[in-house]
Amino acid sequence: MAEVESSPSNGLKKVEQDFVFGADDVDSGIGLCGWLLAGLSWIIVLMTMPFSFFTCFKVVQEYERAVIFRLGRLLSGGAKGPGIFFILPCIESYTKVDLRTTVFCVPPQEILTKDSVTVSVDAVVYFRVSNATISVANVENAHHSTRLLAQTTLRNILGTKNLHGILGDRENISGDMKAALDDATENWGIKVERVEIKDVRLPVQLQRAMAAEAEASREAKAKFIAAEGEQKAANALKEASIIIAQSPAALQLRYLQTLSAISAEKNSTIIFPLPIDFLSPFLDIKGLVA
Fold it and tell me: Which family does it belong to (predicted)?
């Protein structure tokens, strides 16, 4: 009537039972009193048929599992589901466990970094129940415990990093946090699938200082680029003067090119060209070059 849990951990349910309770506790009988109570429950079920079926038959969804206890003891076979299963009234109880991936946000944590800077960091954690039996038997509230552990783990890991490491190395921090959480929650039947650093908030004074530092760095870089451009321009002018000194006709061509450019850009300006020969007596090209 009931279907055994079909999760990947089903093949290890015997080992898990030994880990949680011990093989002797799981396989031992419920005693004479337990058998008497079980027989009494069956009598009640038969006497109240068919109304008892509404309370004895339970259904769990594809993404759920049911962990059943009889007189306080875990039933052998592990969690039940998905599908329909039978519960004896009075002596058996069950707990539904959702196996779907759950996401929660770690509240912003005030953290003192390795270089003595206070930052506020929050994260997102994705996890799921990998073993329903262990998640019920080994911890009171697996989801709440995982949330609290994520907060402390975030503090511990980021406390060993400096500010630049937190801002620029989020991927490695997320990986370290996932490994630490996954290792700690293994005994709770919880599998941590992913951890992401959501936001890093800096103090206002530190934001202003970093902005001023970045602006100064950009200004210094701009001045360096401008100086480098002036140097290249000066070298180009020097090479051009040498070429003009070697060929006087080049100066005449440059003069005509300048006149053409001026006439094209400012059409309303009237230009009276002056022959370069009139200026040759006043130019000492060799002296300029020297």
Answer: Belongs to the band 7/mec-2 family.
Counting the structural domains of the chain, the total is: 3
> Do 88 and 121 reside in the same domain of the chain?
no
Q: CA–CA separation, 248 vs 259, rounded Å?
A: 18
> Which pLDDT score is estimated for 185?
92
Residue 159, burial from CB neighbour count under 10 angstroms (0-12, 13-18, 19+): exposed
- Backbone torsions φ then ψ of 93, nearest 5 degrees: -140, 160
**Which pLDDT score is estimated for 84?**
85
Residues contacting 155, CB < 8 A, separation 6+: 109, 111
How far apart (Å, rounded) are the C-alpha atoms in residues 225 and 85?
77
Query: Which residues in the chain land under pLDDT 50?
Result: 1-28, 285-290
Most distant CA pair in the chain, distance: 134
Measured between its terminal Cα atoms, the distance across the chain in Å is 108
Q: Residue 254 sits in which domain range?
A: 247-290
Helices and strands, number each (H, E), in the chain: 11, 8
> Does any domain span residue 194?
yes
Question: What are the structure tokens assigned to 195, written together?
Answer: 């951890």
DSSP assignment letter at 88 = -
pLDDT value, residue 3: 41
* 84 and 14 belong to one structural domain: yes
Q: Based on the domain organization, do 94 and 110 belong to the same domain?
A: no
Give the model's pLDDT for residue 127. 94
Q: Verify that 80 and 123 share a domain, yes or no.
A: no
Return the pLDDT at 23. Answer: 35
